[in-house]
Amino acid sequence: MPNPTPKRRIALGVAAVGSALALTACSGAEEPAPTEAVDAPAPAEETTEAAAADTGDFNQGPIPAAAPELDTSGLPPEPASDAPLGDRIAWEALEQVATFAKVNDPDATYECPAIAGEEGESATCTVTFLGEQFEYTITIESSGILINYQAELHDGPLIREVVEDALRYSENTEYVLCDMDADLVRGETDTDAPFTCQSLDEASGTVSEHTLSISMYGAFSFFPA
């Protein structure tokens, strides 16, 4: 069941060991000379060596110390509380796209149409990020000193380097691979990504498959495929 659309609030103008057998002597017969017991040869030592893992099909990289997250200091300044409502929501749209991507794009652009803040009003804002356009839609539910509105980022950018680093951290391995069609693909919120990933346990040679699940806010988690 889909999660409810996120709701937001903004202020309008406010901030084997072996054994030997003994022979019995017969009466009148010469006792045979005793035989010497010979030690059985020691069994050869078995050596077990794990087969070397085939890493050629994977992308190798260092395991990050933490899961990838957005460096918010790379965002442009947030508009002041008395800036036009459209400008403030446009910045919020950029923040949501960048948070989804977990990287910044210094060349990103973001804009909304003029928003009056009236109850029932809807608007679609556009963010151009890493050469792709993403829509951020709002619907105002109530207005006044505080404006309550629903907001939805329909999809966001999934970047190969970020996704694979997240899997390296999650599985504690340098060797991963996601079958993405490009280094940036679009992923819808509140669903699974349109690709699967693999991770390699180099010690055992085990390959695991993973599905990437994306939350309604753009956060993602890996599950066994």
Describe this structure in words.
With 225 residues, this protein is mainly beta. The protein is built from two helices and twelve strands. The chain has helices at 85-101, 160-171; strands spanning 7-11, 59-60, 109-111, 122-129, 132-142, 146-153, 155-159, 175-178, 184-188, 191-201, 206-214, 220-224. A five-stranded antiparallel beta sheet has the order 1-6-5-4-3, covered by helices on one side. Strands 2-8-10-11-12 form a five-stranded antiparallel beta sheet, covered by helices on one side. The protein has a two-stranded antiparallel sheet with strand order 7-9. Residues 14-32 and 44-50 have low confidence and may be disordered.
Please describe the topology of this protein.
Blueprint: E1 7-11, E2 59-60, H1 85-101, E3 109-111, E4 122-129, E5 132-142, E6 146-153, E7 155-159, H2 160-171, E8 175-178, E9 184-188, E10 191-201, E11 206-214, E12 220-224
What's a quick, concise take on this entry?
This protein is mostly beta strands. The chain has 2 helices and 12 strands, in the order ββαβββββαβββββ.
Strand content: 25-35%
Rounded to an integer, what's the Rg over CA atoms?
33 Å
- Judged by helices, strands and strand pairing, the structural class is mainly beta
For the record, give the distance between the C-alpha atoms at the N and C termini, rounded to a whole number: 20 Å
Shape descriptor reads elongated
The sequence of SSEs as H and E is: EEHEEEEEHEEEEE
How many strands, what sense, and barrel or not for the largest sheet? 5 strands, antiparallel
